[in-house]
Amino acid sequence: MRHAKADDDTDLIESADAGRILGITPSAVRQLALRGRLTPSVVTPRGARLYRRGDIQQLATERAARFAALHSIHAADADDQPNND
Hints:
Blueprint: E1 3-5, E2 11-13, H1 15-22, H2 26-34, E3 42-43, E4 49-52, H3 53-80
Antiparallel strand pairs: 1-2, 2-4, 3-4
């Protein structure tokens, strides 16, 4: 796990660490970046993309909230189904 500091002293992390926080693969992190959902703060000369830890944590919170909302909708739908017992 490598960390870097941006000019504004923000903690930067690699795709693998971002993936661990988000619960997805590093490849999925790169796909989010390609789709514009994430923006790397730094791209190194070798092409490694570094992301602000705070941005990743915010996205993880948003994803968790969406998941919780979907889960509650599905649970409510299940409660509305007739019980065939």
